[in-house]
Amino acid sequence: MDVELRYLRALVAVVEAQTFTDAAIDLGTSQAAVSRSVAALERALGVRILQRTTRSITPTPAGERIIEHARRVLSEIALLERAARDQNSELKIGYAWSALGARTAALQREWALTHPDVSLVWVQTYAASGGLEDGSSDVAIVRRPISDNRFAATFIGEEGRYAAVAAEDPLARRRFLRMADFAGRTLAVDLRTGTTTEDLWTGSARPASLRQVQGVDEWLMLISTGQAIGMSSEATAAQNPRPGVVYRLVRDAPSISVFLVSRRGDPSALAADFTRLARKTFGPDGTAETM
Question: pTM of the entire structure?
Answer without folding.
Answer: 0.73
